[in-house]
Amino acid sequence: MSEILNKGRLVLWGGVAFLFLLLPFVFSGGFSLSMLSQMGIMVIFALSYNMLLGQTGLLSFGHAVYFGLGAFVTAHAINFVEAGAFGLPISFMPLVGGMTGLLFSLILGFVTTRRPGTPFAMISLGIAEMVAASALMFTTFFGGEGGIVTNRTAGEVILGISYGPQIQVYYLIAVWCFVSMGLMFAITRTPLGRIANAVRDNPERAQFIGYNPTRVRWIMMSLAGFFAGIAGALATINYEIITAEALGLMASGNVVLMAFIGGIGQFWGPMIGAVLVTLLQSALSNFTQAWLLYFGLLFLLIILFSPGGISNLITIHLPVWRAGAVKRLMPSYGFALLTGAITLIGVVGVIELLYRGFLFGGVHVAFTWIVSGLMISIGGFFLRRAIREVKQIWEDLSPELARWG
Amino acid sequence: MEFFFITLLNSLSYGLLLFMLSSGLTLIFSMMGVLNFAHASFYMLGAYFAYQTGLVFGFWPALFLAPILVGVVGALTERYGLRKVHKFGHVAELLFTFGLAYVIEEVVHLIWGRAPVDYRIPESLNFTLFTLFNTQYPAYRAFMMLVSVGMLISLFLVLTKTRIGMIVQASLTHPDMVQALGHNVPRVFMLVFAGGCALAGLAGVLGGNLFITEPGMAFAVGSIVFVVVVLGGMGSLVGAFIASLLIGAIQTFSVALDLSFLDLTAALGVVIDPDSKWYGGLSITISQTAPVLPYLLMVLMLIVRPRGLMGTRES
Q1: Contact B229/B22 with Cβ under 8 angstroms?
Q2: How many domains does one find in chain B?
């Protein structure tokens, strides 16, 4: 126990709790509050996804199924509470969602986890399609196109918590997010979590020491489904409406992007991804129609150049920091940043011109085309040199870093 | 009888179209171990390229130009994308094609807009081939079948009878040995990827005007193709062929059948009260369940025989 709850870790988690408590005071506007709530939900969802991808090596394209089903059952449960059929406080509704996610991932996981690797990815996609298609078939449960509407103020007011104001919902999400984060982190430290890593890295050897890889995958998938269900329930409480889109392929794809952009190698990677992606989605979609394209390009760039995601970029710099060599990297980084920014502006210019249908046009359109084109070619040319320079410095540094461990 | 024959013909043409897609996917998978998530996106590109080149040159040149263009895009994807991420492992490759599917869809939005484009069946093929009982059978569907079968036979001949086909087959199983014999295996990989994409593009040229050419068409057909590949057994061309025809038949027949459990009980002489609790569930017709059936079949197959119809390996 003492090893798990050491001093540094307690300070860290205390800091996280404090941050959750403090955030609404810093970002107190209505928009930022609902954004924070959304981030909290997505952090749980992305972390639960990483239990599959990062820890067990299961690439699932259907994780939103458990999120969505949890959300729908919660919506019906809340409506039952409102009708007076049974009385569970809203604060504990995420448990309903979690149990739903657990139940369905137990059933569906039994089928899907029989084969790892690429077949698993395809089968999870097939199951997701099946559930999404059924959602449009069973309209009484899924509400068809309109979805299911709920009222989060259902039930009695306990200790003055009615869940009318958004701030109360935020704190509900924050508490569940904190608890889920803690539990999911704890799972990575249990023998189960360790064996899941072994199954990811070398299933045959895991089998040799007496574990059944299929069963380990199944258990991990069920647990991931549980936490996805919690996230789904919180989404129902937050938005008070849930539609079949929540369990569709787009939602499943979204969580893959979040986890991968943040980085699946570290526990905290998907959290960065969830926060960043939520931020980008709401911020970019306000400015441009092409936000999905930028998003896809960002994803491709990360896979091509930093498959460990953003968290990996951070961790590879830790030894440099300790060796005190950051100063030597800075000039080349600045150069790369500047040229990268110029290229980026050029690319954005071209994409926006195309999106607005300005393939041909007057003088000022031609001017924008020329400037964008110049920025891409000049920026791109120097960006390549900058990247070469960065690589060179990293190579020069590597013997020093090796000395520092 | 009339219904049966017409639906059978339709299911055959649809199944052959599916096979054009799944054969490329299967070839790429068995060679590189990469499941190309963007495969259906290349199908979509085929349809759009055919529309665009058709505007300039007409349908017939487009029938050849569009697949070649798609093949070139595929080759570039392999050379500058997939080959780079190869060193990061299969998951990264899979995710790369997944991200590519997103980007291709958005680029299509960017260039051709969100609404369907007016890609039509050419006038020279827009006539009734024959009338079976009372239903007119369009010539274009017959043309589609003709092209698919022709493609199938030439694919078979190229793979088994030509030198390049031999090298491709050898590279599937023994890439190191082929490399040692002095062949450029990475280039063979690129060719196979481009060829698979060109096949998907050809399917797009043929299917785009029969169905509808819109940005959502890749997603609509993509998961069905995966079902086909899983059902047939990953990496088996014969399996993919059988599964394509099977799924084609299931989808075509189930959409056309407007029967429900209510009709069954009515035929047995039991009338169910519309106020009954079960009425809603029992009134679902077979055509309403049509979108779910292929996936259901896939799940059943995985329970009974995880390797698929003709698959030889588990993963």
Answers
A1: yes
A2: 1
B107-138 pLDDT per residue, tens: 888 888 778 888 877 777 777 767 767 777 78
In the stretch 275-294 of chain A, residues with CB closer than 8 A to chain B read: 290, 292-293
Tokens found for residue B204? 């797009």
Contact A126 B111 (CB under 8 A): no
**Is there a contact between B117 and B217 (Cβ–Cβ < 8 Å)?**
no
Instruction: Judge whether B270 lies within some domain.
Output: no
A149: which strand partners? A241
Indicate whether B100 pLDDT > 80.
yes
pLDDT band at residue A326, thresholds of 50, 70 and 90?
confident
* Other Cβ atoms within 10 Å of B42 Cβ, number: 31
pLDDT single digits (tens) B156-197 = 888 888 888 888 888 877 888 888 888 888 888 888 899 999
Name the burial class of residue A242, with classes exposed (0-12), middle (13-18) and buried (19+) by CB atoms within 10 angstroms of its CB. Answer: buried
**In a domain? residue B201:** yes
Cα dihedral B312→B313→B314→B315 (10° resolution): -130
Q: How many CA atoms lie within 13 A of A221 on its CB side?
A: 33
DSSP state, residue B130: E
In this prediction the ipTM stands at: 0.80
Q: How many helices (H) and strands (E) does chain A have?
A: 16, 2
Domain that residue B174 falls in: 2-215
Which of A129, A140, A141 would you mutate first to test chain B, the one with the most B CBs within 10 A? A129
> SS in 3 state form for A205-217?
HHHHCCCCHHHHH
Task: Look at residue B313 and tell me whether its pLDDT is greater than 60.
Answer: no
> What does DSSP assign to residue B123?
G
CB contact under 8 A, B94 and A121: yes
pTM of the model as a whole? 0.84
Chain B contact present for A325, CB below 8 A: no
pLDDT at B283 (0 to 100): 66
pLDDT tens for B236-282 read 888 888 999 999 888 888 877 767 666 766 776 666 666 665 666 66
Contact (CB, 8 A) for B103 and B90: no
Asked if the Cβ–Cβ distance from B223 to A59 is below 8 Å, we say: no
**Which residues, at least 6 apart from A387, have a Cβ–Cβ distance to it below 8 Å?**
A336
**DSSP structure class, residue A113:** T
CA B58 to chain centre: 25
The torsion of the CA quartet A120, A123, A129, A133, rounded to 10 degrees, works out to: -140
| Averaged pLDDT, A230-259 | 86
Stretch (H or E) spanning A241: strand A241-242
Q: Which residue of B has its CA nearest to A131?
A: B292
Sign of CA dihedral A7, A9, A14, A19: positive
Query: Quick check: is B159 in a domain?
Result: yes
Using CA atoms in the order A239, A242, A248, A252, what is the torsion angle rounded to 10 degrees?
A: 30
Domain assignment of residue B231, yes or no: no
- Per-residue model confidence as pLDDT tens digits over A19-34: 887 887 777 777 788 8
Query: For residue B241, which of B3, B1, B24 has the smallest C-alpha distance?
Result: B24
Mean pLDDT for chain B overall? 82
Share of chain B above pLDDT 70, in %: 90
Q: Distances from the Cα of A248 to the Cαs of A60, A147, B117, in angstroms?
A: 13, 13, 26
Q: Do A273 and A48 meet the contact criterion of CB atoms below 8 Å apart?
A: no
Q: Residues near A112 by Cβ (< 8 Å), separated by ≥ 6?
A: A60, A120, A123, A124, A127, A221, B302
Element (H, E) at A38: helix A30-50
- So what's the pLDDT on residue A357? 66
Q: Does the pLDDT at position B63 exceed 50?
A: yes
Q: Show which of residues 51-80 on chain B sit within 8 Å of chain A, judged by CB atoms.
A: none
Pairing of strands A241-242, B135-138: unpaired
Secondary structure (3-state) at A129: helix
